[in-house]
Amino acid sequence: MYSSKVSNNKNQCSNGVKNIIMIISFILIIYLMCFNFSIPNTKSLHTSVTLQNDSSLSLSLSSDTGLEHIVFGIASNENAWSARKELVKMWWKPGRNMRGCVFLEKMPPNYTNNANDSSLPPICISGDTSRFKYTFRGGTPSAIRVARVVTETVALNHSNVRWYVFGDDDTVFFTENLLKTLSKYDHGLWYYIGSNSEHFLMNKAFSYEMAFGGAGIAISSPLAKVLGKVFDACIERYPHLFGSDARIYSCLAELGVGLTHEPGFHQLDVRGNMFGVLAAHTLRPLVSLHHLEMNDPIFPNMTKMKSLEHLYNAAKYDPHRILQQTVCYDRWFTWTVSVSWGYAVQVFSYNIFLPDALRIQESYFPWQTSDLARHYDFDTRPYEPDPCKRQLVYFLHNVSTGINGQIKTIYRKKTPENCTITMVSPRRLEEIRVVSQKLEMDRNRLLSPRRQCCDVLPSTSRNVMDVAIRECKEDELIFIHP
Q1: Which of 372, 429, 225, 396 is nearest to 301 (CA)?
Q2: Distance (Å, rounded) from C-alpha 47 to C-alpha 209?
Q3: What is the edge-to-edge ordering of all strands in the sheet holding 431-436?
Q4: What stretch of H or E contains 194?
Q5: What is the spatial distance between Cα 183 and Cα 442, in angstroms, rounded to a whole number?
Q6: Pick from 11, 36, 274, 359: most CB atoms within 10 A?
Q7: Do the Cβ atoms of 362 and 390 come closer than 8 Å?
Q8: Is 289 helix (H, G, I), strand (E, B) or coil?
Q9: Is 227:255 a contact under the CB 8 Å cutoff?
């Protein structure tokens, strides 16, 4: 009996110890779990912070990109340069540390280099390309020389380069907007930036993934350096291609790089009156224009060069707003007013829906003469042949700045007309005055652009219309008021 009690006591003691051990173990497990959750994963945290810092640094570097970080390669030739250099002078900025070259096959006779003329980039003589085959029937073998402007520009071996920008001698750049557009991208990555043709057949024949050279091409520095190493070997595989830009595109495709589309680059494969294209510009900043010599002056009653100077003068006041389209409705007269800032104001004597007002008016002629030549890769609306049924157009007269940084642009009719004027007709208007604040394109606005709003203001004269451009309210719609 005594031994039985001892045995029971031992069992009770053993069970008690087990229970204590289980309780302690349970508490220890809970403690360890809580402790583990309370301490962050330092490796993961370090990686996250590093990525965030790298991203912030990249954005900071891109936003600080200046003209001194870009090298331009401009393709020209001996015969064209003496005339085309006046176009380059429009955008080449003396005293801004701009770098680059105009590439010619040889120096024009009785011509000295531009080394002492800061209003122009220096002349570089292209290398011999006779070893490369060119088999496109009816084409020009000089396309190979022009394509190699890419490698020869990189070979200039400039330091601290973030972007290489290429264009033709009749390409004009709006450099402030070029910088803003490139600032969206990390120049340390591989980027091939440009735009297509406006012409359906051109894009179909070449590629929707090809940047057309006349509009301008931007290639980030690390990509351009790699392309320069492989370019000569690559273009030997493409003797059958027509142009220089097709060769650049093909070699970048072999490197696995696709086109980043930026609609502010303009090839302008149209002829005649470019009004419709310019008056309905994309929300993206205007970066370049091409083929200006092959089209009518962009302002009436001016030469081509004077009209381009007129546009550049407006761009000096507000470069990011140039050609930006704003539409508002006059409630009293049921008119539609479309402002293409720094260029023209259109006044329709009736209300049209906003999507229709944003379409490009077919004021131009097709680039080619085939049936498909009238097909374009943008939304269009027909051009009214009767001037008395057409909307009124007021072209930029002058630009000035006022108090509080307000910018005032005045637009006037430049072409005479013989149409009936009624009490409710906008034809009685002789002048449109537009006020706005300078448009600052920060990174968010570049990545997610929004059209601004405008108001038709009470006017002190029946022959003048006053319009104010402003930021739209958060939930504000641009629509025809009942």
Answers
A1: 396
A2: 35
A3: 325-330, 335-340, 344-348, 392-401, 407-412, 431-436, 464-470, 453-457
A4: strand 192-194
A5: 10
A6: 274
A7: no
A8: strand
A9: yes
> Which DSSP symbol is given to 472?
P
The token pair at 430 is 């002789």
State the average pLDDT over residues 188-209. 93
Cα 408 from Cα 270, distance rounded (Å): 31
DSSP code string of 72-93: EEEE--TTTHHHHHHHHHHH--
| Residue 133 backbone zone (phi > 0: left; psi -120 to 50: alpha; other: beta) | beta
114: nearest Cα among 123, 105, 106:
123
**Cβ-contact 99, 70 below 8 angstroms:** yes
Tens of pLDDT, residues 136-172: 999 999 999 999 999 999 999 999 999 999 999 999 9
Q: CA separation (Å) from 232 to 73, 146, 254?
A: 17, 13, 13
Q: What is the mean pLDDT of residues 42-58?
A: 37
Longest dimension (CA), the chain: 134
Name the amino acid, one letter, at 250.
S
| Residue 15, token pair as written in the block | 């069970």
CA Rg, the chain, in Å?
Answer: 32
Could you give phi then psi for residue 379, rounded to 5 degrees?
-75, 135
H/E element, 396: strand 392-401
Q: Measured between alpha carbons, how far is 439 from 411 in angstroms, rounded to an integer?
A: 19
Cα 188 from Cα 221, distance rounded (Å): 7
CA–CA gap between residue 363 and residue 59 (Å, rounded): 41
Integer CA distances (angstroms), 215 to 194, 262, 353, 413, in order: 7, 10, 31, 30
